[in-house]
């Protein structure tokens, strides 16, 4: 190989990495802007498109704008409830799909895949059509949002837990049973700890999906206002800088949990 | 515990939930699309098999419908290029930083979709630095804007759906046996030939999965068009949601949703046939 070729190759090898990192940087540009704007002092003007000066006010006074924190609390409530139910039902379903044979498994796999592959606007309007047709058109609100969120989180939970279960060595459970552990003890001491990282990841995923959903929620919310709906509402008039504070906090909490989960998984030999 | 029926009992709750709140609603949507268009929220609707709803919907809204498919298509192609570079770099070049980089791909997700999109509005704003820079080098005239153009909407779509492209691509690139690529170079294939003949074909499941997971939500999206575009960039999602929530024209909204779904399913089926991968689940 000539020197020229070698240099060419070196550039080639590192070029891809450099370009990849560039794409990654691009993904973080808006996040950096959100963090920066959370310190923006725009008390003087309603122009939200420029950085006017540094202030802690938005952080100190995060609940200042009318209705902002109410909407965050409502989104957290819906998110927690929907995550709880979706994770429970989804984990059970994942066990059924990986560990048990039953009729209709193939059909079930398709039905689980479909919500991930349908446009949200179609799912949202279908659900609205159902609620209206069954006489719940006037009762849209907290619980219809909850129903919708459990519905679209389920598929993601099932897929995530399934992936973890499939990679699991069934011999470990066999060994526990050979050592006279009862089925329940085996589940508690062996199966569950092994599956737990998958369940935790699924729960985190479904909370963030629920907290972030706008399109389906907006169609089925009636007068109830979730956090994304609040942002949508104020987007036309000029967004209060506190919205960026909430965005930053969400980002930091999620990063903390994800990296925590990563470290925990690494320590436990899987 | 391992009885014959255990599987059924475990799957039942999830199956019921998806059945009642995902499968049945499609029938409700279909019924809605066949409503008598004379009905209203106050007088109620009747299913009169008013198939003309579909014709009316296409006649009136073919522009936003086509525009959605066009924008989503362009965004998907750009995502594929950017996503492939990133996924390839993580899978083959990142070494022990893989997991961290993957986490970083998903991380922007955790700041709300709407906040991220509003952030782009700020970046692309008329007095923002990108517009200033482009005007300084005269790539843009003094009165040209980025906001309220197709460019802004497509840029938003690319940004928001990029992770959906990267993850499936990474998953299939990571599975590739490196010895196959080495074999191709042992047989005197140049690196680029090795890529086109070995790596790319082996990553096709990821390409198909990623493009679908990007195209489908992008075609139904209306947040980017609303926040970054103008009425001239209205996509089909904007129309459907307005018809449902402000106009209250359920029949037309239902028909348009069904049309969108049918088009997407048809495109997906043709695409999967062509790409030759049927195992996506």
UniProtKB/TrEMBL annotation, chain A:
Its main location: membrane. PROSITE patterns: ABC_TM1 (PS50928). It is found in: Cell membrane. It is a multi-pass membrane protein. Residues 72-264 form the ABC transmembrane type-1 domain. The keyword Iron does not apply. GO terms for cellular component: plasma membrane. GO terms for biological process: transmembrane transport. It comes from the Bacteria. Keywords: Cell membrane, Membrane, Transmembrane, Transmembrane helix, Transport. Belongs to the binding-protein-dependent transport system permease family. CysTW subfamily. This is ABC transporter permease.
TrEMBL record, chain B:
GO terms for biological process: transmembrane transport. Residues 65-271 form the ABC transmembrane type-1 domain. Signal peptide: none annotated. The keyword Phosphoprotein does not apply. InterPro entries: MetI-like, MetI-like_sf. It is found in: Cell membrane. Keywords: Cell membrane, Membrane, Transmembrane, Transmembrane helix, Transport. The chain crosses the membrane at residues 7-30, 69-92, 99-118, 147-173, 194-216, 250-272. It is a multi-pass membrane protein. Belongs to the binding-protein-dependent transport system permease family. CysTW subfamily. This is ABC transporter permease.
């Amino acid at each position: 190989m000539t020197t020229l070729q070698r240099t060419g190759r070196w550039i080639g090898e590192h070029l891809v990495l450099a370009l990849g990192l560039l794409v990654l940087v691009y993904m973080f540009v808006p996040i950096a802007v959100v963090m920066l704007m959370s310190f923006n002092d725009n008390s003087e003007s309603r122009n939200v498109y420029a950085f006017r000066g540094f202030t802690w006010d938005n952080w100190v006074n995060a609940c200042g704008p009318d209705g902002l924190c109410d909407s965050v609390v409502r989104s957290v409530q819906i998110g927690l409830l929907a995550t709880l139910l979706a994770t429970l039902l989804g984990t059970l379903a994942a066990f059924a799909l990986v560990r048990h044979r039953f009729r209709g498994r193939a059909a079930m796999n398709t039905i689980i895949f479909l919500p991930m592959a349908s446009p949200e606007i179609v799912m949202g309007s279908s659900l609205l059509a159902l609620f209206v047709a069954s006489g719940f058109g006037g009762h849209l609100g907290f619980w219809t949002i909850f129903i919708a969120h459990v519905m679209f989180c389920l598929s993601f939970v099932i897929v995530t837990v399934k992936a973890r279960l499939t990679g699991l060595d069934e011999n470990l459970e066999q060994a526990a049973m050979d050592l006279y552990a009862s089925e329940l003890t085996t589940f508690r001491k062996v199966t569950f700890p092994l599956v737990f990282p998958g369940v935790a990841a699924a729960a985190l995923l479904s909370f963030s999906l629920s907290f972030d959903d706008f399109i389906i929620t907006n169609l089925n919310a009636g007068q109830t206002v979730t956090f994304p709906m609040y942002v949508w509402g104020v987007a036309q008039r000029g967004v209060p800088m506190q919205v960026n504070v909430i965005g930053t906090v969400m980002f930091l909490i999620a990063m903390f949990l994800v990296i925590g989960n990563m470290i925990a998984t690494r320590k436990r030999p899987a | 515990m391992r009885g014959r029926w255990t599987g059924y009992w475990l799957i039942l709750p999830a199956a019921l939930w998806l059945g009642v709140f995902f499968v049945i609603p499609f029938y409700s949507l279909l019924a809605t699309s066949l409503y008598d268009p004379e009905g209203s929220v106050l007088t109620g609707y009747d299913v009169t098999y008013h198939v003309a709803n579909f014709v009316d919907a296409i006649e009136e809204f073919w522009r936003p419908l086509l525009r959605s498919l066009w924008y989503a298509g362009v965004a998907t192609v750009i995502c594929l290029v950017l996503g492939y570079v990133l996924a390839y770099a993580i899978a083959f070049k990142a070494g022990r930083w893989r997991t961290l980089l993957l986490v970083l791909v998903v991380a922007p997700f955790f700041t709300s979709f709407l906040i991220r999109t509003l952030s782009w509005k700020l970046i692309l704003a008329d007095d923002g630095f990108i517009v200033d820079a482009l005007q300084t080098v005269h790539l843009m005239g003094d009165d040209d804007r980025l906001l309220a153009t197709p460019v802004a909407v497509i840029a938003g779509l690319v940004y928001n759906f990029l992770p959906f492209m990267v993850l499936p691509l990474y998953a299939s690139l990571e599975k590739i046996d490196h010895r196959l690529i080495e074999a191709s170079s042992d047989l005197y294939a140049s690196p680029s030939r090795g890529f086109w003949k070995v790596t790319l074909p082996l990553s096709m499941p990821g390409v198909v999965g990623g493009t679908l997971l990007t195209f489908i939500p992008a075609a139904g999206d209306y947040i980017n068009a609303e926040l970054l575009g103008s009425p001239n960039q209205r996509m089909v999602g904007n129309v459907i949601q307005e018809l449902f929530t402000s106009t209250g024209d359920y029949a037309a909204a239902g028909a348009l949703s069904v049309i969108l779904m049918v088009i997407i399913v048809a495109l997906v089926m043709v695409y999967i046939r062509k790409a030759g991968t049927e195992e996506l689940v």
